[in-house]
Write a sequence for this structure.
């Protein structure tokens, strides 16, 4: 065999890892962690994860550069799009109440290798996101003191001109990360109380901004003399929607915390719905009052809210806005440090990471090793690295996780439920893995004459009309339809995003490709919908499956295709590193 080419043995091992699933068996409520979080705790975790610096920065940026006053429509559309992904997380969080979020959801439905890749990408997302928030927090605080902290550091340490390194070491960002890590290591209850306090302050300040903003509102700022309500047209609203979509990233912290929820089957869906509704209302109302206070074209993209109050003669309100921004950034940082180590803990429990990270402190009942190591790594990144290029990883990692979770929902719905009387995940600990494939899981043992069809079988009412589908292996039919649906979604996304000019197609060819990809996408959904699904009364199930997760998949693919090609290049390099590491385990 030629050097550098994979051997047959390694390819076989890769295929086994690709198909190996985590079984849904045993008691789902047994855990080494402490189940102490209520519905209110989870709701405020979600609010804290979504209301970050974006509320204070993103609203002004989108309003001035993309949508104008129609930024509120962009936020509304982005909230609806985020709801599609949030419903997928809500069903999985209630059905599989274990820590691990997208990693775990992928593991129980898609396979070990896919779960490993998603887990590493989610970890990278939390690491870079936390370090970037800490640097932003440091810069914001530094600007309040006329950049004296930065000037002092540059004068005594110097300015670095090294590629991939920051211009100067940010000791303030490093300190806040280490402090937050120490607080998170004290236990889930302490983290929840701290998040309660910061989120409550942030919500009160948001309420102050909304009330004060409506008092100072001037409807003339939406008039045609100022450019009108939608100066950039519908295309500007769509561009703003794509940007605003990432403002709602953060609700997955609720799914990552479901192993510490008292009643996850009820609390997780309610918390996700309430937190997303609260945050969407906050974004829409704040963007409304912002564009009513001052003309949209005169906004300062970097500090729109504080500048708007200053220009209306209420400079003291700028300090309140600054306090809200710092509280919001602190909650995001705290929740990154809260969620990331729990992903590591879940991977270590499953044998995909060092077993030391599965250690749970007997008193605080948190994965203490993961918290400390994760915090030190994040602090190191904030101290030394230039995070501007790395931040682009956040978008692709998040969208990829959303795509896999939505796909996993479809897979899980057509799987035969486990024979155990209490479905759920096995209790944590080094347990034997079950080497089953997706097709094995949706294989049916029932017959055509069964009174109640098994999940994955053709619906009885459709058998006279679609008998050719009933003759196929049910597992193969559903798996093939799902694969075709994802492939057609990628094709349709390319057609919608790049257009006829970028694809170098004549007009008729572009329209033909658009119609064909749409027809195949819809046809695959109809084939999936013709098969029986799991119906459970004891836990939340998202409506309109497979349509709702399929729309989420298509939306995520479109947003990923809009990312810079350099982001894709960095992602594929990271992917190859992950595959190499997984092949060595």
């Amino acid at each position: 065999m030629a050097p550098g080419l994979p051997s047959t043995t390694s390819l076989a091992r890769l295929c086994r890892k690709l198909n190996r699933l985590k079984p849904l068996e045993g008691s789902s409520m047994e855990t080494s962690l402490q189940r102490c979080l209520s519905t209110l705790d989870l709701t405020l975790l979600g609010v804290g994860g979504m209301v970050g610096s974006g509320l204070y920065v993103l609203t002004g940026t989108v309003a001035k550069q993309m949508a104008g006053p129609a930024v509120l429509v962009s936020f509304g559309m982005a909230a609806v799009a985020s709801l599609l992904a949030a419903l997928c997380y809500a069903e999985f969080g209630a059905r599989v109440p274990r820590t691990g979020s997208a990693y775990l959801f992928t593991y129980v439905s898609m396979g070990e290798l896919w779960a490993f890749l998603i887990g590493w990408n989610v970890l990278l997302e939390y690491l870079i996101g936390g370090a970037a928030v800490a640097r932003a927090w440091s810069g914001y605080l530094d600007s309040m003191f006329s950049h004296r902290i930065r000037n002092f550091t540059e004068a005594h340490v110097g300015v670095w001109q090294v590629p991939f390194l920051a211009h100067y070491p940010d000791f303030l960002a490093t300190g806040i990360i280490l402090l937050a890590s120490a607080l998170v290591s004290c236990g889930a209850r302490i983290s929840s109380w701290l998040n309660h306090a910061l989120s409550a302050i942030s919500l009160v300040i948001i309420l102050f901004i909304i009330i004060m903003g409506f008092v100072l509102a001037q409807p003339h700022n939406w008039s045609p003399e100022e450019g009108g309500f939608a100066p950039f047209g519908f295309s500007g609203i769509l561009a703003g929607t794509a940007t605003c979509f990432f403002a709602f990233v953060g609700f997955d912290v609720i799914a990552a915390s479901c192993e510490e929820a008292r009643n996850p089957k009820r609390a997780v869906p309610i918390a996700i719905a309430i937190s997303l509704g609260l945050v969407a209302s906050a974004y829409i109302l704040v963007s409304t009052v912002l564009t009513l206070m001052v003309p949209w074209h005169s906004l300062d993209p970097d500090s729109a809210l504080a500048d708007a109050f200053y220009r209306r003669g209420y400079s003291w309100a700028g300090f309140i806005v600054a306090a809200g921004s710092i509280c919001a950034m602190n909650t995001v940082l705290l929740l990154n440090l809260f969620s990331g180590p729990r992903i590591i803990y879940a991977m270590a429990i499953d044998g995909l990471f060092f077993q030391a990270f599965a250690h749970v402190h007997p008193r605080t009942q948190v994965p203490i090793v993961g918290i400390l190591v994760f915090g030190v790594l994040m602090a190191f990144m904030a101290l030394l690295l230039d995070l501007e290029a790395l931040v682009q990883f956040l978008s692709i990692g998040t969208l990829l996780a959303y795509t896999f979770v939505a796909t996993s929902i479809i897979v899980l719905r057509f799987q035969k439920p486990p024979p155990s009387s209490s479905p759920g995940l096995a209790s944590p600990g080094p347990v034997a893995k079950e080497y089953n494939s997706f097709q094995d899981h949706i294989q049916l043992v029932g017959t055509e004459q069964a009174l109640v069809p098994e999940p994955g079988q053709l619906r009885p009412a459709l058998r006279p009309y679609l008998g050719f589908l009933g003759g196929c292996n049910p597992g193969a039919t559903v798996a093939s339809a799902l694969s075709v649906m994802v492939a057609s979604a990628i094709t349709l996304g390319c057609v919608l995003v790049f257009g006829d000019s970028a694809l170098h197609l004549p007009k008729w060819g572009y329209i033909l490709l658009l119609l064909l990809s749409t027809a195949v996408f819809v046809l695959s959904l109809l084939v999936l919908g013709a098969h029986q699904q799991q119906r459970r009364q004891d836990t939340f199930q998202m409506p309109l499956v497979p349509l709702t997760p399929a729309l989420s998949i298509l939306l995520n693919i479109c947003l990923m295709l809009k990312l810079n090609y350099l982001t894709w290049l960095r992602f594929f390099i990271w992917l190859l590193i992950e595959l190499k590491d997984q092949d060595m385990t």
Notes: The CA atoms of residues 70 and 230 lie 5 Å apart. The chain is about 65% helix and 0% strand. The longest helix spans residues 315-349. Confidence is low (pLDDT under 50) at residues 1-5, 421-435, 441-450.
